[in-house]
Design goal:
184 residues; mainly alpha; Arc Repressor Mutant, subunit A; Tetracycline Repressor, domain 2; 2 domains; elongated
Length: 184
């Protein structure tokens, strides 16, 4: 069952979502057993509320993961595109390759609505890169497209996180950034 979007951005729907998400995060933080009845009890809602909105535990976990993967704010402004991208890439790779980051990625990819949830995560990443590129444009700096940054920088990092298990060292990140600059 697909996750349904809230009819209203606020009100009861938002309060229920936040209570349920908070309950999931609390269980995860304590390495607690996850089940819809336990989460419902912690959130102060009925299990049927969770089943109606999310369908099953996998979808709920994916929704919580997508919400957690949403950036908290704008990327840091260092004064240059290369500096901005280096700082952003360091934070992104550290967050995604951490234990919780890997668990969130697994939850997103395990959902029945994986394409939609992965698309939301991609949109968050693309939007942050677009902010970096907009700053570069304002400063008159040459910069690649969002797709080029995703293909040349983000994709190799995610490949290592998901498949190879190789570390994402500062040297590796710098090589990706150097290759991106040489390509332009």
């Amino acid at each position: 069952m697909a996750v349904r979007e809230a009819i209203r951005p606020g009100g009861r729907s938002a309060r229920v979502q936040e209570a349920v998400h908070s309950a999931v995060r609390a269980f995860e933080a304590n390495d607690g057993e996850l089940s819809i009845p336990l989460i419902a009890a912690q959130a102060g809602v009925t299990p049927s509320t969770i089943y109606r909105r999310w369908g099953d535990l996998k979808e709920l976990l994916a929704d919580v993961a997508v919400a957690r993967l949403r950036p908290d704010g704008e990327p840091e402004d260092t004064g240059s595109f290369s500096g901005d991208l280096a700082v952003w890439l360091e934070q992104y790779s550290e967050e995604m390759s951490s234990g919780p980051g890997r668990a969130m990625i697994r939850d997103v990819l395990a959902s029945a609505d994986q394409e939609r949830n992965a698309g939301r995560c991609c949109a968050y990443t693309s939007a942050q890169i677009a902010q970096l590129l907009e700053r570069a444009e304002v400063r008159g700096e040459p910069a690649p497209s969002v797709d080029t940054v995703i293909d040349r920088v983000v994709a190799p990092v995610m490949y290592r996180i998901l498949f190879s298990g190789q570390p994402i060292s500062s040297d590796y990140r710098q090589n990706l950034l150097n290759d991106l600059v040489l390509e332009r």
